[in-house]
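Ligand-bound model needed. zinc ion.
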Amino acid sequence: MKKISSKVLALVVALTCMFQFTVVMAADQTTTLKNEKSSNNEEITNAQNNLENVQQEKSKTVTEVENLDSQITTYETQIEELDGKINDLSNKITESEGNIQKAEEEYQKENQLLNERLVVMYENGETSYLDVLLSSESLTDFISNYYLVSELASYDTDLLEQIQEKKQEIENQKQQLETSKNELNTSKAQKEQTQVELAAAKEEKSKQVAQLSQEEQNIQAQIDELKEANKEIDKKIAAAQAAIEAAKKKHQQQQQANAANGGSSSSSSNSGGTSTGGGAVSSSGFIRPVSGYPITTTWHYSSGALHGAVDFSGSGISGKPIYAVADGIVVTTEALTTSYGNYIIIAHYNGLYTLYAHGQAGSIAVSEGQEVKQGQQIMRVGSTGNSTGPHLHFEVRTSPGRYANRVNPLNYLP
Ligand SMILES: [Zn+2]
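Prediction:
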């Protein structure tokens, strides 16, 4: 079946100009188209399953991207909060620095005032202070010493100490602020690092989503293409069916015309044939494939096996011409050493196929794809293949390659 079908299809392509041939092949073409469509449908089902998987994976990945996005937003908020705190601390540190500066200036001012007072005291002749001053190694030392000798200075000393203490306190606070600020900066850097990692993960996932979307589109396009192809197939099937109907109508018209012309063969114009069978034409439009020899074996079951044919035989039949029973196209010629031996299959315009078997070696007179006319000699009777003596084994089929599609030739022959 496969072998014949592919030959037939090749012929269809090669012989597009032969409208009739295309029509004859329409039935076979329909089968091929239906197979093609069913294969497309299988592909569509697979593609749709594939599409569902891709869509599920995409949906999952989109959720992951959304989660990452939400995490990134959380980190952004936290980083913003840290930025606010760091900013506050920076302001406080600046403020501390100002306060330290102020305390320093105050200290310098008070110190200056104290010095001035000491000078005044000295100039008033209180020489004992000069002695104290000269004997002191440093200002602090002097103040201590001075305190011992004059209660007048005690207030100034206290004031200077207070200023220094206050300055120290501010410096300590500033140190704490800076420590806190450093901690916040470290925390911020960590969060920023995590955020960068999350952003990278999100980008990776987003890429996956894009890839899956692309895949989704490709599969959908594939499905659309297959569906489109099926539509075309449906159109072709419809065209093939219409062609079959047209051919049947044309065949009927030809038969009616033949009947009106006195029942003679339709092949009045024999194109390239070497001889003409002639003889009566059946209601199916067939003549007999051999002239002057009877059917000796009919369609029957023998030991459970069907002889799905009729055999023509008789004395002297060897080498007699075998004729095409109707116009048609040769779809198979083959020379087997077993089975049918040398045999030919012809496709006819009414959708039937005829098979001629056991032809004489070297007598096949037609080739595949050749158009033949009714009554044209195609081979000679022989005994090739599985045959016990010279005879013509003749079959009628509704499909060229199908053994099961044989029908009783007696219903078609005159
Ligand atoms: Zn037979």
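The radius of gyration is 57 Å.
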